Amino acid sequence: MGRVLAVTSGKGGVGKSTVSVGLAAAFCKKGERVLLVDMDEGLRCLDLMLGTDSSTVFDLADILAGKEIADAVYPVKCIKGAYLIPAPSDFGRIDVFSLTGFAKSVREDYDTVIFDFPAGIDFTLYTAMPKDTVFLTVAVPEPVSIRDAAAAGAKLANLSFSARLVINRFEYKAMRCGKCRNIDEMIDLSCIRLVGVVPESGALKRFSVMHRLPERSRAFKAFKRITSRLCGQSAVLPKPKKI
After folding, report:
1. Which residues are within 8 A (CB) of 78 and not within 5 positions of it... i.e. 6 or more apart?
2. What's this model's pTM, rounded to 2 decimal places?
3. Once rounded to an integer, what is the mean pLDDT over residues 222-231?
4. Which of 8, 33, 80, 163 has the fewest C-beta atoms under 10 angstroms from its C-beta?
5. What phi and psi values does residue 72 have, to the nearest 5 degrees?
């Protein structure tokens, strides 16, 4: 039975979907079979980021309405071992009850299933996730994002879900100049246990165009550390200057 991850954020625009893709790439590098499920109905983006948009016919809503899962699973050519189920192009088509059964069954065929949820604290669909789901709350080093991450983490705790913090777009120079919070402050203010820090990266910004994340980039190394920790392995966080 595969692990289930849910990537979320309190505030939009923090690179949540990019983190989902980066994690998928890192898990696949370990030899895993990974399924990405785009949950952002009406505003889906993973199909464009991964270059599967031209072949998309069916989506998650079709599966929940009775379509075979295999009909809406698309291989990701740019990440060997990764597969995508797109979100519905229209809003309001994901049924919570049907999603519960889907979430339980789909993990049987993959080593890791990553649900990429929309930003915000409407947790209606979160209740459909298996209880052992690990929620990765993505935040950037700015006060509003950290406060919103804290709000999301508090709601997850009330639902008895395990939450972990992913700090995205970290810039050492900005931290040194006092233009953003340091890592310890972000952990304390969010009240969420840290699982990893991803640096600001040009490679990540270009991914949706190039469909490639260089394995030697600092960003990919950061995702590798996160996946190692999620697998129960030790991965020391580098000094801030080396992240």
Report:
1. 50, 51, 211, 212
2. 0.94
3. 96
4. 80
5. -115, 15
Helix (H, G, I), strand (E, B) or coil at 48: helix
Is the separation of the CB atoms in 125 and 99 below 8 Å?
yes
> Any idea how long the chain is?
243
**Beta carbons within 10 angstroms of residue 228's beta carbon:** 15
Q: Name the β-bridge partners of 83.
A: 35, 75
Rounded mean pLDDT, 11-22:
92
Mean pLDDT over each residue of the chain, to the nearest integer? 90
Q: DSSP letter at 159? A: T
Q: How far apart are CA 140 and CA 136, in angstroms?
A: 13
Question: Does the structure show a pLDDT above 90 at 179?
Answer: no
Contact yes or no for 171/197 (Cβ under 8 A): no
CA distance 157 to 153: 6
Exposure of 97 by Cβ count < 10 A (0-12 exposed, 13-18 middle, 19+ buried)?
exposed
* pLDDT number for residue 221: 95
* DSSP class of 232: T
**Phi, psi of 195, deg, nearest 5:** -115, -15
Residues 132, 118: Cα–Cα separation, whole Å: 20
Q: Which residue type occupies 38?
A: D
DSSP string, 59-102: -HHHHHTT--GGGG-EE-TTSTTEEEEPPPSSTT---HHHHHHH
What residues form DSSP beta bridges with 35?
83, 113
